[in-house]
Specification:
It is found in: Cytoplasm. With 584 residues, this protein is α+β, with helices and mostly antiparallel strands. The protein is built from 17 helices and 22 strands. It starts with 17 loop residues before the first strand and ends in a 9-residue tail after the last helix. The structure holds aspartic acid (ASP).
Amino acid sequence: MYRSHNCGELRASHTNTEITLAGWVQGVRDKGFMVYVDLRDRYGITQLYFDEEQTDKKVLETAQKLGREFVIQVKGKVQERASKNPNIPTGDIEVLVSDLTILNKAKLPPFTIEDKTDGGEDIRMKYRYLDIRRNPVKNSLIFRHKVTQEVRNYLSNASFIEVETPYLIKSTPEGARDFVVPSRMNEGQFYALPQSPQTFKQLLMVGGMDKYFQIVKCFRDEDLRADRQPEFTQIDCEMAFIEQEDILNTFEGLTRHLLKEINGVEVDKFPRMLYDDAMRLYGNDKPDIRFGMQFGELNQVAQHKDFGVFNNAELVVGIAVPGGNSYTRKEIDKLISWVKRPQVGALGMVYCRYNDDGSFKSSVDKFYDQDDLAKWAEVTGAKPGDLICVLSGDTNKVRAQLSALRMELAERLGLRKPNEFAPLWVIDFPLLEWDEDTERYHAMHHPFTSPKPGQIELLKTDPGAVKANAYDLVLNGNEIGGGSIRIHDKETQALMFDYLGFTEDEAKAQFGFLMDAFQYGAPPHGGLAFGLDRLVAILGGQETIRDYIAFPKNNAGRDVMIDAPAPIDDEQLTELSLKLNLKS
Ligand code: ASP
């Protein structure tokens, strides 16, 4: 038996008990005639005590030679400490050691295994197994486990069944690039790793499973923005014989359950916002509604004067920054530079101070008098003491820019509180999205999403206006889940592929199996998937998902610990019938 207790377990009530512990040496304090060792494992830290009088000489000497992160086993007796440490649960006791075995020595770790480490991100990732010994990472992984356990509990209690679907499949249409795997047995042919189990979960509905879920890895070969991973985890779900309302209620229930069990937070019924309203009021389909600062569209009140910039703009839109009138001229100039950064891309920003005495002072006083500016204040909901920031230009662009500014200002003003939770559904997404590059419509969600009833005809005349039975679950400015009611008949699905520019042959080659299945009694069905990594990070009050992933990849998609991806040798290439054609 390696241990009778763990390092977080012993209390004053164990005094005089003979115990055996095993773990890592967190630190040694050698006072010559007495030695203290902090012994650590996943459960906590226990102080070990050795002294000249009570400890065997050899044992004491061994203790004096212990290095950080040595793996040891000790036997001894629990005793109350002379000076207690109220900061740790085992702080009342220590173990008077009688036997000490070094189970394994350790090289000096490249960074300190402390909550606040001296190791930078790169080095911590290279030695991630050491990083995982640190409380912040360890606790994040434990936290993630709690979340997944609650997910499994809730869904299992609601009659969902977890079914595994294959990883070696064929392209799935989530709009990203596939990771592919060459097949040795089928020369020149490749599997694609799933971007999601989308088609399989629909086939499970045809198979009569009725309610499916899976906590599953998905793979998307995308350019990695700061906080994305090429492999990530979804809570993937699908239900048969349901309408949109059933889905929203079920997964609102799951989210509420998680907020309650994990965060101890009770949330009211989730608001529902039309996609069009989200874009109009927040410039964004995943609005953070923990704070106000809604957009006010100013075309009507700002386009009748001689200010060409506004007159020529498709949209003039502003927000009121609470207390922003206190900003100095220099601070406002900095804000203007901020919106002009290439990442945001605004051409400029007009502003208007709302003074405490009710008067206004704007950067365009030449064109607008006090009455005009009062209307700006009315439309943006500004109050005395606020600053109105106004952007103008092409509708889609200007909304994105103002949305970025809104989020930035809220961050600076401390309005994005990590322990406040504001979930909502965004519903009625457009079915299609115009893609500038390919000059074609693409499915905004994916091609299996059904249009709103009665709108299919619109596809011919005004495709961009067709709304879908698609919804996103948004939490604190992040999309944490999204899904749709699916098409479940072959004709509509074929029509959809046709509108999306697939030839009949292409559609058949890629998704023939699904269309075939639809001919054998496909029930009405729909579902959604949560992004688990992000969900866990938000529930944990963090913005970054990396700490919640045991072995994450870096921004270049590399695992720096195992050094992957890596070349394969010629023999393996030959076996796979592959020849490299490298650019460099
Ligand atoms: N497969 C979709 C996704 O990964 C989710 C869904 O429609 O259920 O976004």
